[in-house]
Amino acid sequence: MVLEGIYTPLITPFHADGSFDLDALAQLIERLIDAGVHGLISGGSTGENYAETVEERLELARFITERTNGRVPVIVGTGAMRTPDSIALAQGARDMGADAILLGTPPYSVPTEQENALNALAIDRACGLPIILYNYPGRMSVEMGTTFLDRVGRSGNVIGIKESSGDINRVHLLARDYPHIQMSCGMDDQALEFFAWGARSWICAGSNFLPEEHIALYRACAMDGDFDRGRRIMSAMLPLMRVLEQGGKFIQCVKHGVEVTGLRAGPMRPPLKGLNKDEKRALEQVIRTLKTTVAAITEGNRA
User: Fold this and answer.
1) What are the transmembrane regions (predicted)?
2) In 271-286, which positions are buried (b, 16+ CB within 10 angstroms) versus exposed (e)?
3) Which residue would you say has higher pLDDT here, 191 or 303?
């Protein structure tokens, strides 16, 4: 499996009572595929997986896989505190015909690199699907270091890694020492640097509501090798990246961004609460400015 392009970790639209709004999810899937995203991810943290049961996560993944119907790859997130839950999610992904799984470190338990590797390999053996690792030490308190990568990287199923550490030295490490593991950008404000170091894909929550703008950066850097245009697009996107990565309300901003596009996203499940009026206005202004600026850059390039 080749990781190429923009992959959207889908939000989970909810009704006011906390139940799934599957009609809204279907509309979002169609909007993203029409916009040209290259893949969809079910069951990531952007989808509020921590607030959902294993059964609910499988229900969502099955719906997304069936609705997508092979038009773009579907990757199913398997992150969970318990290894049996991750195995159940991975086996469910295989049985429903998903294309790959996203495999993170179990949160809270703080495993050693050896323990984390054995956990990943147990999930690998249970499903046999292509695996995209997910390194996010800021959430999991554990890094997928060289001991881990050396061990799991011997599996032919481990084809990529979503790198979300924020440490640019990790980008250098992966590009130089682990070229057989495809590197995917998982830290939005470093997308330009990832592309400069050879990444061909970007797993970005902001593409839930700004797919064309994220695709524009991918095209400029990864497809055209035009890093001058890429820098201008990235400069226009940085205010949004600051809101998402540093604002402390990541999922709330993504869901409100979807609402701004005219689609339903609904509330968050507890413990999260929505944005206040001032936060909504600030995000809406950032989105308006970003869209106008990126449109001018891309139109100017075509002229």
Assistant:
1) none
2) eeebbeeebbebbeeb
3) 191
Query: Tokens 């991918």 sit at which residue?
Result: 218
- Spatial contact of 132 and 100, defined as CB atoms under 8 Å apart: yes
Burial of 155 (0-12, 13-18, 19+ CB in 10 A): middle
Tell me if the bond preceding 84 is cis, omega within 30° of 0: no
Average pLDDT for the chain: 97
Place of tokens 């440490």: 167
How far lies 149's CA from each of 59, 128, 253, 260, 264, in Å?
Answer: 31, 18, 33, 40, 40
DSSP H or E segment with residue 25: helix 22-35
8 Å CB contact between 227 and 220:
yes
**Is residue 134 annotated as a catalytic residue, yes or no?**
yes
Q: Which residues contact 16 (CB under 8 A, 6 or more apart)?
A: 266, 267
DSSP 8-state symbol, 44: S
Query: Helices 227-246 and 250-260, interaxial angle, to 10°?
Result: 120
* pLDDT value of residue 303: 61
Q: Are 88 and 76 in contact (CB under 8 A)?
A: no
| Residue 162 a catalytic site member | yes
Express each pLDDT in 215-267 by its tens digit.
999 999 999 999 999 999 999 999 999 988 777 899 999 999 999 999 999 99
pLDDT of 2 reads 97
Task: Answer for the pair 193, 166: CB distance below 8 angstroms, yes or no.
Answer: no
Catalytic residue among 162, 218, 249, 255: 162
Q: Virtual CA dihedral for 193, 196, 200, 203, nearest 10 degrees?
A: 10
Active-site annotation holder among 134, 136, 218, 255 = 134
- Give the chain's count of helices (H) and strands (E): 12, 8
Question: How far is the CA of 283 from the CAs of 169, 231, 241, in angstroms?
Answer: 31, 22, 11
CA atoms within 13 A on the CB side of 84: 1
